[in-house]
Design brief:
Radius of gyration of chain C: 24 Å
CATH topology of chain B: MetI-like fold
CATH topology of one domain in chain C: MetI-like fold
CATH class of one domain in chain C: Mainly Alpha
Strand content of chain C: under 5%
Protein name (chain B): Oligopeptide transport system permease protein OppC
Shape of chain B: elongated
Shape of chain C: flat
Number of domains of chain B: 1
Number of strands of chain B: 0
CATH superfamily of chain B: MetI-like
Main location (chain B): membrane
Distance between the termini of chain B: 28 Å
Structural class of chain C: mainly alpha
Pfam families (chain B): BPD_transp_1, OppC_N
InterPro entries (chain B): BP-dependent_transpt_permease, MetI-like, MetI-like_sf, OppC_N
Strand content of chain B: under 5%
CATH architecture of one domain in chain C: Orthogonal Bundle
Structural class of chain B: mainly alpha
Largest sheet of chain B: none
Oligomer: heterotrimer
Family (chain B): Belongs to the binding-protein-dependent transport system permease family. OppBC subfamily.
Radius of gyration of chain B: 23 Å
Chains: A alpha/beta (328), B mainly alpha (290), C mainly alpha (307)
Largest interface: B-C, 40 and 43 residues
Number of strands of chain C: 0
CATH architecture of chain B: Orthogonal Bundle
Chain lengths: 328, 290, 307
């Protein structure tokens, strides 16, 4: 694992998420381990169905009723997975908060926006109605909602998608959490405002000293914001590296495939974008070999037979591939 | 554990839905029970040497004796109870299924036209439906059957006239969303007339919705008929229907509970079955519904 | 909000106008009534009748007279009880019907919502199955079967409650109210259960959970409104069902309400009375539908603006 001197804020060990389905059991997340330092921004990248969002849901105790999480998620000295509901509620919304993918449906349509924000403070910090409302308005102002004092009295349907996501960001950062989980926060937004919203989120998080785990399928977003990246495929970690390293010198064939499929401004003459052949694996059961093997261009015999071990390939770098050499 | 993903054989959606329905035990049991009751009502009376209107003066108010000629006894006119209940069933079931069918067809066509054409015609057609919806429907039935002069045909017409509204509204919504789909656009571009499109594309694509709600219409029609007959406005003595048999049963309740329980149970069983079948159909055709 | 209210009122007025018109023409066209011409009478008598009922006037004037009468709440005399006006008969029956209807609505909504919520919170638990069973029974067994059966068991056999009539105070109310509310308990509990399960799957409820405000607060502040909106929307149709049911209930339990008068009037072709009660029912229903819409708009900010 990654050895660093500072104490990590979050450390996930061997996390698995399984769903009971009528056809059997589906494994969405399969033995994922990772660490996060205070103030760090970590990206989790993967295709749809790679299990990336389920990691966040498992941490927040928000898995669907047929889902079970196994392993350990240590956050501020507690294992989130084994906390009783009341104790988990003291963590959620207070020191750990989350922004969801779809801002159009993630706000309560029957409640004034200001009340939805104030609620968090009233419950967690016991603020009076007035004080909580004032704090909520101030926070809306900080996410640059124009005329925040009167907008706070409005209902979600009176806000545009981008505005609603700003409200979500305001709500998530209101209690100055230690860790913010962002699940594809800009996927549902108009392309023109995606960057704006992301930058705002990162800027505010920096001000409050909040770490971020950003789940996305968009490598452009990762390059823009993240210090470090974890690449996920079929519920397993394929590779982990610092962002620059990953973009310059990816170790795993899957990561290279992803990068080749990414449009770049600085390479205008590429006749066509690369694609990864085959269809993404999702929600299957355990497989004996590497989950990416069926689609891998560099596949060798052992790939379909033995599970590739996680090898540390450098400072803060690791990859799970039979073709990758362990660093000395 | 491994999930084997077997590529399914290509089946039509309708076929798949019926297969799903067949797996629903309660619904399938209801289908069998209902079939049995229907057969009994229509063929059962043939095995008796008398009809439900023949009085057997030698056996007035005969008790239940399963091995006699009157297995469930006779009423105070000496009429055989079992045969009367079965004959009543013929009337109730016929009105039920026929009424639902006619109301369904009217509703589907009305809704399909309104939804497909849209615009002002749609607004006008739906305003009419809205107004009719504004009436408590039993009142409307009573008014109509009075207006039509009473009798079985008037009763039937009145029931049909009040029950086509729901299928119309549902089909209209479906047709409205269909009319915006690309394949309708394609059909229009391909030179199909409006009539062809409504008949060949809109109506068939509403089939599953119609089956689900049509199945709910049957118990509703049966209920309306027996309701009215119970009040004395529908089918009248001496012709039997479950409604007027139950009414006669209530009148004789303190002396002979049988007269109430026999037709009441039959009606309840049929309504149970029809509701379970409707539920099963809904689950099979619209699995997201719950 | 004001536009919404105006629109609802306008729609209600339109339905009411349609109701009045329809009522008028049904009275004119219905066979066998006092206006039919199939009886052999001398021309003088016919002329006399026509003059009394203003049948010699053109149709639009007759209609105007009818509407004018309505506005003064004067529906003319009943043709069966000539000494009483339609207004008198309705006024005498209305208190009974309203009392039963009121309690039936109260019982149906409270019990129905409670059962539905309990079922949704503990899915497949005991309450859920109990509620499901009541639901199936309430929907499948008609009032006119379950009513007499309960009457036979609880009144005739056990003598816990009176068989019928209105002579034993609140005890006379028990059976009618239970029987009348049963189908609505069934519908409302089913509706509440599905609606609550659906609402709990909403993204915004997930957001509330993520805020760590606790399970009770999540349910109370974030799921209840979403759950109750469809239930409130059903209250309009529920009123219609209660009206329909009360016609049966008053017949079964021999209560002197307007439902019973309605059936008697229909059987005896007492058209003025039938029409009077129809108008009353229609008016009540329209009023209830408007009230329902207003309550929904009050609860759902989205409706206030789209209206």
């Amino acid at each position: 694992m990654i050895r660093m001197t500072a104490e990590p804020l979050l450390s996930i060990r061997d996390l698995s998420v399984r769903f009971r389905l009528p056809e059997g059991e589906a494994v969405a997340v399969d033995g994922v381990s990772l660490d996060l330092m205070p103030g760090e921004v970590l990206g989790i990248v993967g295709e749809s169905g790679s299990g990336k969002s389920q990691i966040l849901y498992a941490m927040m105790g928000l898995l669907a009723s047929n889902g079970r999480a196994g392993g350990q998620v240590r956050f501020q000295g507690q294992d989130l997975l084994s906390l009783p509901p009341r104790a988990l509620d003291r963590v959620r919304g207070q020191s750990l908060s989350m922004i969801f993918q779809d801002p159009m449906t993630s706000l309560n349509p029957f409640m004034r926006v200001g009340d939805q924000l104030a609620e968090t403070l009233r419950v967690h910090q016991g603020l009076s109605r007035d004080a909580a409302w004032k704090a909520a308005v101030a926070m809306l102002d900080r996410v640059r909602i124009p005329d925040a004092a009167s907008r706070a009295r409005r209902y979600p349907h009176e806000f545009s998608g981008g505005m609603r996501q700003r409200v979500m960001i305001a709500m998530a950062l209101l209690a100055k959490p230690r860790l913010l989980l962002a699940d594809e926060p800009t996927t549902a937004l108009d392309v023109t405002i995606q960057a704006q919203v992301l930058d705002l989120m990162a800027e505010l998080a920096r001000e409050t000293g909040t770490s971020i785990i950003l789940v996305t399928h968009d490598l452009g977003v990762v390059a823009r914001l993240c210090d470090r990246v974890v690449v996920l495929y079929g519920g397993r970690v394929m590779e982990e590296a610092r962002t620059e390293t990953l973009f310059d010198n990816a170790a795993h064939p899957y990561t290279r495939g992803l990068l080749a499929a990414m449009p770049r401004l600085e390479a205008p003459l590429t006749p066509r974008l690369g694609t990864i052949p085959g269809t993404p694996r999702s929600g299957g059961g355990d497989v004996s070999g590497c989950p990416f093997a069926p689609r891998c261009p560099d596949r060798i015999d052992i790939c379909t037979k033995a599970r590739p071990p996680m090898r540390i390939t450098g400072e803060g770098r690791r990859a799970a591939c039979h073709l990758v050499e362990e660093a000395q | 554990m491994t999930v084997e993903i077997v590529p399914p054989r290509p089946v039509s959606t309708l076929g798949l839905q019926f297969r799903r329905f067949r797996r629903n035990r309660l619904a399938m049991a209801s289908v069998y029970v209902l079939t049995l009751i229907v057969l009994a009502c229509f063929f059962g009376p043939m095995f008796f040497p008398f009809t439900g209107q023949d009085a057997d003066f030698g056996n007035i108010s005969a008790p239940i004796d399963l091995f006699s000629i009157h297995p469930f006894g006779t009423d105070d006119f000496g009429r055989d109870l079992l045969v009367r209940v079965l004959e009543g069933g013929q009337v109730s079931l016929t009105i039920g299924f026929l009424g639902a069918l006619v109301a369904g067809v009217i509703g589907v066509l009305y809704g399909a036209v309104a939804g497909y054409v849209g615009g002002r015609l749609d607004g006008l057609m739906m305003r009419l439906v809205e107004i009719l919806y504004g009436f408590p429907y039993v009142i409307l039935v009573i008014l109509l059957s009075l207006l039509l002069g009473g009798g079985n045909v008037a009763l039937f017409a009145a029931i049909v006239f009040t029950l086509w509204l729901t299928p119309a509204v549902i089909v209209r919504a479906q047709a409205q969303s269909l009319a915006r789909k690309e394949f309708i656009e394609a059909a229009r571009a391909g030179g199909m007339t409006h009539r062809q499109i409504v008949v060949e594309h809109i109506v068939p694509n509403c089939v599953s919705v119609v089956i689900v709600y049509g199945s709910l219409l049957v118990p509703e029609v049966i209920l309306s008929e027996s309701f009215l007959s119970f009040l004395g406005i529908g089918i009248k003595e001496p012709q039997a229907s479950w409604g007027n048999l139950i009414q006669a049963g209530t009148a004789a309740m303190d002396t002979d509970l049988r007269l109430l329980l026999l037709p009441g149970t039959m009606l309840a069983i049929v309504l149970f079955c029809l509701n379970f079948i409707a539920d099963g159909l809904r689950d099979a055709f619209d699995p997201n519904d719950r | 909000m004001i536009r919404f209210v105006v629109k609802r009122l306008w729609n209600g007025a339109l339905t009411l106008a349609a109701l009045v018109t329809l009522t008028f023409f049904v009275m004119r066209l219905a066979p066998g009534g006092p206006f039919s011409k199939n009886r052999k009478l001398s021309p003088e008598v016919i002329a006399n009748i026509e003059a009394t009922y203003h049948l010699d006037e053109p149709l639009w004037m007759q209609f105007g007279r009818f509407v004018w009468g309505l506005l003064r709440l004067d529906l003319g005399p009943s043709t069966r009880f000539r000494d009483y006006s339609v207004g008198d008969i309705i006024a005498s029956g209305l208190p009974y019907s309203l009392t039963i209807g009121f309690w039936a609505v109260i019982v149906a909504t409270t019990v129905g919502i409670a059962l539905g919520v309990a079922g949704a919170l503990r899915r497949n638990g005991f309450t859920d199955y109990a509620a499901g069973t009541i639901g199936v029974i309430g929907i499948a067994i008609p009032i006119f079967v379950i009513g007499p059966v309960m009457q036979a068991v609880f009144a005739l056999k056990l003598s816990w409650v009176p068989v019928g009539g209105w002579n034993d105070g609140w005890r006379s109310l028990i059976l009618p109210v239970i029987v009348l509310s049963l189908p609505n308990i069934a519908y409302i509990s089913r509706l509440t259960r599905t609606s609550m399960i659906e609402t709990m799957r909403e993204n915004y409820v997930r957001t509330a959970r993520a805020k760590g405000i606790g399970e009770w607060r999540t349910i109370w502040r974030h799921t209840l409104k979403g759950t109750l909106l469809p239930v409130i929307a059903y209250l309009g149709p529920a009123t219609a069902a209660i009206i329909t049911g009360s016609i049966l209930i008053e017949t079964i339990f021999a209560l002197p309400g307007i439902g019973r008068h309605f059936v008697d009037a229909a059987l005896n072709r007492d058209y003025p009375l039938v029409m009077g009660i129809t108008l009353l029912y229609g008016g009540l229903l329209i009023l209830f539908n408007i009230a329902t819409d207003l309550v929904r708009a009050w609860l759902d900010p989205r409706l206030r603006h789209d209206g």
